[in-house]
Design a protein that fits this description.
Largest sheet: 5 strands, antiparallel
CATH class of one domain: Alpha Beta
Oligomer: single chain
Distance between the termini: 29 Å
Strand content: 25-35%
CATH superfamily of one domain: Gamma-glutamyltranspeptidase, small (S) subunit
Length: about 160
């Protein structure tokens, strides 16, 4: 059975305003609300949890979570290896490539296709846990992954 991806959207926070007052949270044509929540549970058959990943960090969360999901679900990459991979993406602006990683090699080819490039440190903080079972489902293991670019990580056996 194919995995089902479920994105949970929590709440919507107002855009912070530099000056407190009654207009701080007022609705207006030029104001937008943006919140990216990065938890992504993946189920099999709509009921059996296969993978749950998430990341702190604002709008870039979407790129980090999507990149990791594609690597694990579509390409069959191990969870930790997918999390360790270089971060890259675009949020309707320049294409951001993680500094000091293999992603920087994409700068030339992307620029040749008219991408504006920004090379920057990108600490995603992504973390996840994946449940893998035998074909019959009688034996399962849990595999975890944490972003080594963050302040610390939890590992166990």
């Amino acid at each position: 059975m194919a995995p089902t991806l479920v994105f949970n959207r929590n709440a919507t926070a107002p855009t912070p305003q530099p000056v407190p007052g009654p207009e701080a949270e007022a609705t207006a044509a030029t104001r937008t609300t943006l919140e990216a929540t990065g938890s992504a549970p993946v189920t099999v058959g709509g009921h059996s949890l296969r993978l749950a990943i998430g990341s702190p960090g604002g709008p870039a969360i979407i790129n980090h979570v999507a990149r990791t999901l594609v690597a694990v679900l579509d390409e069959g990459v191990a969870l930790q290896q997918a999390i360790d991979a270089p971060n890259l993406g675009s949020r309707n602006g320049p294409t951001e490539l993680e500094a000091d990683t293999a992603a920087v090699a994409l700068a030339g080819p992307l620029a040749a296709r008219a991408h504006r490039i920004m090379i920057t440190p990108m600490t995603s903080g992504i973390h996840g846990i994946m449940r893998t079972c035998t074909t019959l489902g009688d034996s399962c293991i849990l595999e975890s992954g944490t972003d080594p670019r963050r302040e610390g990580l939890a590992r166990g056996r």
